[in-house]
Amino acid sequence: MGSKCRTCRGPAIIDLPRHNANFCAEHFLELCRRQVKKAIDSFDMLVPEDRILVAVSGGKDSLAVWDILLDLGYRADGLYVGLGIGDYSDVSAEHARAFAAERGLSLREISLRDDYGFDIPTASKATRRVPCSACGTSKRHLFDEAAIEGGYTVLVTGHNLDDEAAVLFGNTLRWDIDYLARQYPVLPARGRFPKKVKPLIRLTEREMAAWCIVRKIDYLVDECPMAVGNKHLAYKAALNEIEAESPGSKASFYLGFLERMAPVLRASIAARSDDADDAGDGVSLGACASCGAPTPGDVCAFCRIAATSRAHQPVSVEVLLGRRGRTASVAQGSPS
Amino acid sequence: MGSKCRTCRGPAIIDLPRHNANFCAEHFLELCRRQVKKAIDSFDMLVPEDRILVAVSGGKDSLAVWDILLDLGYRADGLYVGLGIGDYSDVSAEHARAFAAERGLSLREISLRDDYGFDIPTASKATRRVPCSACGTSKRHLFDEAAIEGGYTVLVTGHNLDDEAAVLFGNTLRWDIDYLARQYPVLPARGRFPKKVKPLIRLTEREMAAWCIVRKIDYLVDECPMAVGNKHLAYKAALNEIEAESPGSKASFYLGFLERMAPVLRASIAARSDDADDAGDGVSLGACASCGAPTPGDVCAFCRIAATSRAHQPVSVEVLLGRRGRTASVAQGSPS
Prior knowledge:
6-stranded mixed sheet, two-stranded antiparallel ribbon
């Protein structure tokens, strides 16, 4: 490239159009650490005393956030949940284990199939939910459970700026006021449940890939095969086109929302529940009859997915996606 | 196509994926009229007694909205403002005049160059503003002036769903709360100033083009040459891609905003001005020293543009765009 690091004028390894600058490896890492610190500080995400559990998928974001937090001096263990998505899950587990082993870190492991008797492809088929929905519900439940069992104060996930901006984009396209009002990078602790934070909200996918490359972290590059073609990825693509035209748009969309729109929405929700003479979010929670987790019904969403999926014969991801692929090609070939 | 009209099962001339249906010419026109009626009714845009002035550019939207309003029984005259944008303006004027003449309608004409001593290319150069900004300010001023002089109660513009959704998209990407709070298809009358309404907010560009084709309205197809490459068109393109993936997204984005988000924003702005012990929008307006229009300063924005532009030698659109084209090609050729 011949371009120079903004900080030291040495040879640059990455250009960041959003910052209108190039950086060498050392000062790129410094920029990433600074952005994570800034996110942690502005949203009171972590204190040095926290016992942190990082949800690790074996992809770039979760390994990078674990690495950065350790680098910044935090105490953080990892948690890997095996989702049973064929080769994708097998390979992702290897990456997570290798990262932890090479650094002598503690990695807790849970297997949905071995420990709970089902997997995500089967759950998707059995519950007729889109895979990402069954998967999200399962992960949230298992992350909470593991954090409580291990006595962790905070659960960290590797959601980055692209992830959060894409979710915001979807919620905005639908003007889903309740979802918008809840979109925030910190969820406070509630009862036994740990605080949940997203320290990578000021960094992009591309930056996290670069972090891993510079730090020689071997991560799983592939997207989850079950996510291919979902709306989340379409929203990311739309935002990437806008970003390419006007560098900085994505960050200003997401961070501008947090700064200017989120307070308006929270005030509006608060006013609404005042009007309703209602102290909390208006829903009273009991304990799940099966696992004890708080739920508005008798049995929590995870235990319902688990029960339905365990009663179903196992479905492999190959069979599930094969069927999908066939449906898609028929639809394309049909006269319109 | 072989597809059938949803209403009469006759041969369809247009498919509307958003409505998941096809329509023949007659029932397509009926759908358009129904959508305009629905917009007029839901936002109290017009009453039968109104004296309406339609701002006509010679493009599909403004000719269609004039046609539809007459069709629905309203009394509406046209207003054409010559902006001095070379051939584009000459041809657009011919379309507006032909439409009015063939139907025996009254079309008021204003020429920025002849009546005010400048044109948009010159204003853009002289004021160093992007052309669409100088043009918008000028049109708003001249529309108001013409409506007041002619004793009209309502000014109608042909802004369609694509236009409004694209503006909303831009304001949302920046989370510009004040602009968002003001985005509404009706602006009430204020002092001598007419009410302003946008009856086409439930219809798309493509539908308005189809309306004109079916009704044999000869409109100017070209986009304004000065708008090419602006962000508004990029936002339209982004929304069109999302719409292609999920038909109905664009309408639900814009109409969902009006239904669910606009009330939250208006309540928030009202609460803010209550807090500030401030009755109105916080800005006191005097009369422009030059034209008498209300302005927060001594001279209104239009009269300032006019004064600066009149002092500048005339710039043709060809010269202005020629320069732009050259700059763009140099930028593309430069090493990054």
